[in-house]
Specification:
With about 150 residues, this protein is an alpha+beta fold. The protein has helices at about 1-20, 30-45, 80-95, 135-145, and strands at about 50-60, 65-70, 105-110, 130.
């Protein structure tokens, strides 16, 4: 009887863990979080940038996502500036150990005079958006060798 009780108690704890979102399959990667911080810091150094932020989403239901948002000053807003900021993000991503992880980094750039309203992001037109990442040949030629260890 005690052995059966241990099994029931174990099953109850497992069920509680799953229901509260605790799961061994939910994986947080510090290098992905650091990548988000680095990209935002590098963007904020640019005179065209009014603000920048990131959100690192990870979990069994969402996988590994890095969502980056940059606000470009209205007087500087152009596709060329958005491309420059995407290049900075691609460089940082290439040079990060997070590049080896299965993540989905996405960026979006808005002009400060056409900001999205919270909860209605689809109503604002971005000046740039898309996924990050470059082919190996491009990365090596443009950004140099990648780090060899995490």
């Amino acid at each position: 009887m005690p052995r059966r009780m241990i099994g029931v108690v174990g099953a109850v704890f497992l069920l509680i863990g799953l229901l509260t979102g605790c799961n061994v399959f939910v994986q947080y990667y510090e290098d992905v979080d650091e990548l988000g911080k680095e990209i935002v810091a590098d963007w904020k150094e640019q005179p065209e940038v009014a603000d920048a932020s990131y959100e690192y989403v990870h979990g069994i239901d969402s996988g590994q996502q890095l969502n980056l948002k940059v606000i470009v000053r209205a007087e500087s807003a152009s596709y060329e500036v958005a491309d420059k900021l995407k290049d900075i993000a691609n460089r940082d991503y290439w040079q990060s150990t997070a590049y080896d992880r299965e993540i989905s980094p996405q960026f979006v750039a808005y002009s400060s005079d056409n900001l999205p309203v919270e909860g209605k992001w689809e109503l604002a037109s971005p000046i740039g958006k898309g996924g990050l990442g470059v082919p190996e040949k491009v990365g090596l030629e443009k950004y140099g060798p990648r780090p060899s260890k995490r």
